[in-house]
Amino acid sequence: MWNRILINLAPSTLRPSSEINLPLSFPPKILQFIATIFITFLSLHCANALSPEFPIKGNVERRVNFWIKVYTEITTQEAFLHDSEDLSIVYKKVSLPKNRRKRRRYLKGQRNHYKKLLRSMAKSKPEQYNEDQKKLFEIIGPQSPNNLRQMARNLRFQYGLKDRYLKGLKRSYQYMPFIEQEIEAANLPEELKFLPHVESSFNPHAYSKVGAAGMWQFMRATARLYRLKIGYTVDERRDPFKATKGALRLLKDNYRLLDSWPLALTAYNHGARSMQRAIRKLGTTDIHTIIENYRGRRFGFASKNFYATFMATVLISSQPEKYFPNFKAPKALDLKPIVLPKALSITEILGATQVSKFQFKEYNPSIRRSAYSMSLPLPKGHTIYIPNRSGLNVAQIHKKLEALETSTPQGDAQRLHIVSRGENLFEISQYYRVNMRDLVIFNRLSDPSRIYAGMKLKIPGKKTKIIPEPVLVAKKEMPKVGPSLESLDSRDTTKKEAKVSPAPLYGPFPPLTAPKLEGYELETKKVKKNTYEIIVETDETLGHYAEWLQVKTQKIRQWNSLAFGRVILMGQKIRLYMDDETKLRFTQERNSYHLSIQEDFFENYSVASEKTYTVRRGDTLTQILKEVELPYWLVRRQQQDQKLSHNLMVGQKITLPVLEALNQGDNMAPTDSLSEEDEQEEEK
């Protein structure tokens, strides 16, 4: 017992338990004396180093020590095999094969080996143990047969994070002066500045499987509440400066609700309302009691360990030289913000600011890829950041941008059309009052008849020069729906066929992982003049509809007799009033909202394979999706008919995608488990 305590109380000298060789024959009184001295020293050290608002004691202390080891001793190419409940038990450190299939086989073998050992020990007495069992006994100490069987179920692999943490540590110094300034202005605890280590390793481009983005990992719905704008060209969740202000407001709101910083931090991961349920159920606000005793269905490994991972980063980041002797803190970023006086393209901005495209991308992570790939304008009022330099005059640059002659239409920001289900090019050309032939040539469409829901079309402006390329398009590639190109172009008197590029820009056949809207119910059904009906889709709120219609939320509530505070549900019918121009804007904003979610996802993850989940008694779709950490739209898309009802039946089969991160180190959460991979392999 005392050997275990000594292991748990030495965070700076911890090694995997399999490497620790403490003699088991020490007299208990001597071990107790040593442990008492150690506890006293550690308590004094922690009292001096940490604010009393962030306590560490009991099992939380063992959790913190484990995460210090994960952050400082093993890299993302290594892992610990450990007990998921008692984190002081680390069975083994493993090096991970790079090949995904070999890694799965290796991990499965290691896990099964230890599982068999633990189960065999439950059937034997210590004096009957073989050599492997004796080595394991040195790690875990005396255990009852029931405990051993439970420990066989608790086996878990944890990725190392040393290399990822060191990258994040260097990035953190770029933003730290600004974060510290905001924390001081808000009168918040200084320790909060280290939270992005847990969330993203201070990576503004980080993106999670469930759609959280940026350094502070905001979900879209939460970002809206804290005034972070998300559009098709800009996502302010990735703006380190604006997202920092939003995150601190969120943390402050959590603290007002929970009156405890450990709980406010856990709520950042698990949700404030969920933490309030835990408080009511256990009758306490003590984080240590809640972590050990709360049995909420969603309160899993990640939520239980969120506070511990945070406190580990606080301890490490407060004295990084102790864990990384060669570490040198880089300089903070010296950037100047400029608010765009009008809608401008990136090319126009680069010319006026004399900043390279590489620098602009690096210092403006909030600008989505679509703004670069499709030359879409950034909206008026958006804040850009440029590096400070000798003689830089921000006011002068602002005037230069304001006086800039631009081809970007002002007051008509929607110059991108996202195709809705059932639309054809003739209808789209009529919407925007552009020539259909120009629309085809401008978008280099090789087969104009084969457009699909979610396809992106750039709309040429009045001053846009349409220059066809000298390649003939065969007649069979002319539209099969609506009038022909020849009959539509009344201004063109030539009998020659249009010359366009044979290479399609966005189609006609999207790759399997390409973003598309085929499975969505996004139709805007006309009931009567200026009256339409829609069906609520996934991730939509009344706030979205109000924003897209440019009306107040209360107006939509009145139209639908919805009481204040009542939420809308997916599949619910909502009535909206709008004219033709508003309908077009609403449809495009709605399409781009859902398309951008998919684009962000597929920039960071690919579907490597799939597995089948069989619905059990008591399952709900919401609970299943939270446990597997997958968004609803993706799972629905994976079904053969692209339909997935919330009304589940026992025995129903659901196809679940198995994901692979395209940027493995950047998109991993600290608590991502390796054991899930071999479990998926076993189920296939």
Question: How would you describe this structure to a colleague?
Answer:
The protein is mainly alpha-helical and about 675 residues long. The protein has 29 helices and twelve strands. About 45% of the residues lie in helices and about 10% in strands. A hairpin with a 2-residue loop joins strand 8 (about 525-530) and strand 9. Helix 4 (about 100-120) packs across helix 29 (about 675-684), helix 10 crosses helix 11 (about 260-270) and helix 23 (about 540-550) packs across helix 25 (about 580-605).
Question: Layout of SSEs?
Answer:
Elements: H1 2-8, H2 28-49, H3 58-72, E1 78-83, E2 90-95, H4 100-122, H5 131-140, H6 145-153, E3 155-159, H7 162-185, H8 195-199, H9 220-225, H10 240-258, H11 261-270, H12 272-282, H13 287-293, H14 301-318, H15 320-323, E4 335-339, H16 346-353, H17 357-363, H18 369-373, E5 383-387, H19 394-403, E6 416-418, H20 425-432, H21 436-442, E7 456-458, H22 485-488, E8 525-528, E9 531-535, H23 542-549, H24 553-559, E10 573-577, H25 580-604, E11 605-614, H26 621-628, H27 632-638, E12 653-661, H28 664-667, H29 675-683
Antiparallel strand pairs: 1-2, 1-3, 4-5, 6-7, 8-9, 9-10, 11-12
Helix pairs in contact: 1-2, 3-14, 4-6, 4-29, 7-10, 10-11, 11-12, 11-14, 23-24, 23-25
